[in-house]
Amino acid sequence: MAAYVLRRLLLMVPTIVGVVFVTFAISSFVPGGPVDRMVAQIQGAGGSGGDVGSANASGGDTRARGLSGFDPGIRAEIERQFGYDKPAWQRFLLLLKGDATFDMGRSLFSQIPVSTLIRQRLPVSISLGLWMTLLSYLISIPLGIRKAVRDGSRFDLATSLAVSTGFAIPSFLWAVLLATLFCSANLPLFPQRGLTSDDFAQLSVLGKVGDYLWHVAMPVTALTLGSFATVTALTKNAFLDEINKQYVLTARMKGLDERRVLYGHLFRNSMMIVVAGFPSAFVGAFFTGSLLVETIFSLDGLGRMSYDAVINRDYPIVFANIYIFALIGLVVNLVSDLLYTVIDPRIDFEKRA
Fold first, then answer.
1. Which of 1, 23, 113, 293 has the highest count of CB atoms within 10 angstroms of its CB?
2. DSSP code for 202
3. Under 8 Å between Cβ of 61 and 51
4. In the listed set 114, 143, 171, which residue is the last one of a domain according to the structure?
């Protein structure tokens, strides 16, 4: 197992390099880069970044269109400040070096170190992602098992309505509903802004815990309501596939109680497909799934920061987030594979054909 883990860790290096290279190559050909955006701002052509990009959507050179009257010397100085005076291969090597050392440079426009921006926003993403994943699995797995055991019963039909609703309504709509019901001026039971209160530092330890849970309650609830349905359906279908197999019937014929049959025999085999879907669910919940929820509840997380960086063509932030997303995704995939051996000790990656 140690050799397998070492191989997987070594394979992460070329994988991440490939992901960073593809992102770098795409950004090099996308019209309306950070230099063009800065030039447009100086000329008063607009500060959204979208004007420059849309004006060049057909693939023209910005210097030859709309910005042709700009002083080439000033443009060259902007390129030097942003590092675009260097050849592409040098910029790519500097990018790899920064990623490897977690020195990811500075934001092109705010000049704040990217690592500082990530540290500031990481608590929000960790709070939303981990709580949502934990609650979703704690609800979905027991519910899916119960639905499989009582397949076709009134309980199954009634809970299927809740699962179907979870499938149909995305997290951001739940967030809008919860914010309207419980965070409005008419019924301000929960805050609609920030991860903590302004006086958080002055609170006691118990007060800080309560204040934190008070702030994350609504966004985490919205994310959980929008995500538990998938895991529930996976769990139920996995149990239904196994529940009528011969080894289950044999265990029951031997007189084992239902709980022992379910959790001593069925559980390990049925959980394989749920574990297989964990990495994508975790990464999606940790970042992309929380973007709109972060916006609705005014939370500055990695998802919102990534979106703003793409819109503003702030490429150091974009590259840093892609690198972190890829790294966490690969690590979670490795953890998922190792969980296979915990669930079913018969699995041995070293002896597989």
1. 293
2. G
3. no
4. 114
What would the mean pLDDT of 214-243 be, rounded to a whole number?
86
pLDDT at 206: 92
Residue 205: partners with Cβ closer than 8 Å, 6 or more residues away:
none
What stretches of the chain show up as alpha helix (H) in DSSP? 2-29, 34-43, 50-55, 72-82, 88-101, 114-149, 154-168, 171-182, 205-225, 228-243, 246-253, 258-260, 267-276, 278-286, 291-296, 302-312, 315-343
Tokens found for residue 338: 């190792």
Instruction: Give the C-alpha separation, 149 to 152, whole Å.
Output: 9
Split into its structural domains, the chain has a count of 2
250 and 166 within one domain: yes
Structure token pair of residue 187: 């019924």
Residues 84 and 232 in one domain: no
Within 13 Å, how many C-alpha atoms sit on residue 140's CB side? 29
Position 329: which residue type? G
Residue 100 sits in which domain range?
A: 2-114
At 310-321, the pLDDT tens digits run: 888 888 888 888
Q: Are 130 and 219 in contact (CB under 8 A)?
A: no
Residue 47 φ then ψ, to 5°: -110, 15
